[in-house]
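Why this split exists: single-chain examples teach little about how molecules sit against one another. For that reason, every record in the complexes split bundles all components of an assembly together and asks for one structure covering all of them. Below is a record exactly as it appears in the raw files.
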Amino acid sequence: MITVENVSKSYGATRVLTDCSTAVARGEIVVVCGPSGSGKSTLIKCINGLEPIDAGRIVVDGTSVADRETNLPKLRARIGMVFQTFELYPHMTVTENITLAPIKALKRTRAEAVKRANTLLERVGMHDYADRYPANLSGGQQQRVAIARALAMDPIAMLFDEPTSALDPEMINEVLDVMTALAQDGMTMIVVTHEMGFARRVADRVVFMDQGRIVEDSPTQNFFEQPASDRARLFLSKILHH
Amino acid sequence: MTHFDLAYVVSTLPLLWDGMQTTALLTVISLAGGLALGMMLAVLRLSRLRLVALAAATYVNLIRALPLLLLIFWFYFLVPLLVGRPVGGYTAALIGFVLFEGAYFCEIIRSGIQSVRRGQIMAGLASGLTYGQTMRSIVLPQALRNMLPMLLTESINLFKGTALVYVVGVRDFLTAASVTGTRDNTLVEMYILVALVYFLLCLAASLSVSRLQRRYAV
């Protein structure tokens, strides 16, 4: 459903992505990992066109992202995204956060949007907080609301950009549990994360990046048991033994 | 100096009220014009087109480096030489205020917009909103709240600053009081009254804005 072909990108003189290619099938869960600065976040921001690419091609459900004719808002409305820093809108309640885009971009009625929001809040265990403001929620609660907000657009795929990196340790699991449930429901997901436990349990495939290149792209079991590259082996040894 | 005479002060009120209306009108028009110009300049300064941003920045820096009084003099004394007929004190002052406040409001609005985290724009765009919708629903409401105190301070400065029209012969509140005080030899009463009125109006404005802010605080 999502194909990334030979994508390269630079910020000025700094190369951030070099000739990256991979593909994600419908219902597949792909974890993207690698050291900081390896281009993971940039890569998934290219998928919904938040970051423009310099070379190559990204196709989402038959639509080429970088194509001039592509209606980016329309495309982005079909791909959910969850950020490291949650990015809930601080001046809106939880319900308003979730209903904004469905009302504005999908032209749903407020009543429809609120009904859907309630269902989703129930699903992420936040239905008691519908009228709260983000500032009154913990990090884990905010991130669960952010997931509900992304789901409110009925996306065909979800992108997670280090969704648990900004969380206190005791809140990480409540977010991972929601993501695991989502995966079990068959959602197509690309997850940038350092949570190797989650990757092992949930991912179908692991993409390992280093210095802007995709170094390894293998089924989860292979990646953890016999990584092909030295770089991935070194990364795993550092991240798993602490 | 005469003793403070309430009946006398009351008798001067109609004249002072005329002056206050002029002051209020000058403030409102300059505020509206300055905000509109400032908004436009802020958008230009944030433009991705280098030349456009540079032109707006040059204007802002130039204007902010000049005394307001000089701007008013330009339009009062120099522009008539160019256009061949007098501009009039009122118009000259208004143009001066709008051009001057536009530069200050530009900076306030620009910093307000920039105070909103970039991630908020990303989140809006990622959810399928257009850039315009993201600005209207997500960025501007937050920016406005952040810049409210600065906008108020600048508006109060403008309100007090309109007293400068004295020099081009427009009869605002302060001028009306001066004229009355000089005529009746009551400058002490008049200047105390003027100070009191300015103080109370500015205090009321401050209080109402901090109330507004508390209501919309997150």
